[in-house]
Amino acid sequence: MTASHSKQTMKPVTAAKKLGIHLPATPESFREAAAVSRSDLARLITAPPQWLTDLRATGPHPRDVVASRLGVSIAALARGGVTEALTTEQIEELRQDPPLWLRTERVAFEQARLEEERLAAKAAKAAKAATSATDG
Description:
The chain is mostly helical. The chain has helices at residues 12-19, 28-31, 38-46, 50-58, 63-70, 74-79, 88-96, 100-135; strands at residues 9-10, 36-37. Strands 1-2 form a two-stranded antiparallel ribbon.
């Protein structure tokens, strides 16, 4: 008996997430596609069409990309009142003249990152100590 191999596909929304783009800003042919195959996705990544190159360069960008470029969390964007996708120009304006909420959220985000690193280092040290104790 031979196994039948079905072509793996995903919805356009999933493909857009994997590409890091805002689905509503994509061409209608992409949005309305029944499915995007993994080989289609690979082609988009390795040889992006002009619309994808332009979209990545100028936006609008999805919230996870906006948050990353601003150095905050997605929740911080919501607390700051940013609920829509932003263009590269809008992100740069915020970076050049950050409002108080953005400055505050960046500090909080950095503190959380440092705490995560501290806890990870502590856990690694404990694991190493436990391994040394069982080996010795």
